[in-house]
Design brief:
By secondary structure, the chain is an all-alpha fold. 73% of the residues lie in helices and 0% in strands. It has one domain (22-266). It has helices spanning 31-54, 57-77, 83-107, 112-134, 145-172, 176-187, 189-197, 202-225, 237-266.
């Protein structure tokens, strides 16, 4: 489900300083990409919960914010896609995006339905502005600082929306975490099938699937972590976070090896 690029790249004609050309800053969309993405969502969910219950919530949010800022600063500093840098940024966005969604419900008492709608509106606004400013939402066009900023703002919004949506189905709609995981596993097949069989364009198919990966991974991670009384396996948020983080590291290592093998040929 690799996004296409319906508009020609115009970065070379942009004003100096606003459209400085960069090497590719995002990975190819492959099966390993989707697996790693789902793993980051689950790891972010349980890590956020672990920090919030182990530390003072304000301290946990502060640490999450610092990790998020540092990882993004590193991602913006590099000149091309580097697997461990990119996926570290995604993981930190996952942790902080979960915290951002939880603050509305846990901290401010806003219902999951309202927070889900709120983050959906935020995401839609980001998409609209990005499309109007840059002319495309394709990830193949992430080759300027401004486009990269739009990309990561979108990623953060998808994580917050997915967190709220997953809690909405699991808690408010009483599906439980396993039921929610199954629901989103079915849901993520819809844009894939629409792309392959019904002619849905690649860009909306990609972003629809990208959004759904968040509640998909988070629901299964929560199911593993929460107590039997809540319908889970009671493995604990700490062990589940470590397990999913190790799986992420393994897939990122595979991606790094593949990149080293293909870079000389591309050059």
């Amino acid at each position: 489900m690799a996004p296409d690029s319906p508009h020609p790249d115009t970065t070379t004609a942009a004003a100096p300083g606003t459209a400085r050309l960069l090497a590719s800053k995002v990975p190819e969309v492959t099966a390993i990409f989707w697996i790693t993405k789902v793993l980051t969502t689950g790891m972010g969910e349980t890590t956020s919960d672990y920090l919030a219950h182990t530390l003072d919530p304000a301290v946990a949010v502060g640490l999450g914010g610092l990790g998020f800022a540092a990882a993004l600063a590193l991602q913006f500093a590099v000149k091309r896609y580097i697997p461990w840098v990119y996926w570290l940024a995604v993981a930190m966005v996952s942790v902080f995006g979960t915290m951002a969604a939880d603050v509305l419900h846990v901290g401010l008492g806003i219902p999951y339905l309202v927070s889900t709608i709120f983050y959906a509106v935020v995401l839609a606004a980001v998409f609209i502005v990005w499309r109007r400013v840059e002319g495309t939402l394709s990830i193949h066009s992430i080759n300027t600082r401004r486009r990269e900023a739009f990309y990561w703002l979108t990623v953060l919004a998808t994580f917050a929306l997915g967190t709220a949506a997953g809690d909405l189905t699991a808690v408010t709609f009483n599906l439980g975490y396993l039921g929610s995981g199954v629901l989103f596993a079915v849901a993520i097949a819809v844009p894939a099938l629409a792309y392959w069989k019904l002619g849905l364009r690649a860009i909306p198919a990609f972003w629809a699937a990208y959004i759904i990966t968040r509640p998909l991974g988070a629901s299964f991670a929560d199911w593993m972590a929460v107590s039997h009384a809540r319908g889970g396996l009671d493995w604990g948020t700490g062990p589940v976070s470590i397990g999913w983080a190790l799986a992420i590291a393994a897939f990122v290592a595979v991606l790094a090896v593949r990149q080293r093998r293909t870079t000389p040929a591309a050059a």
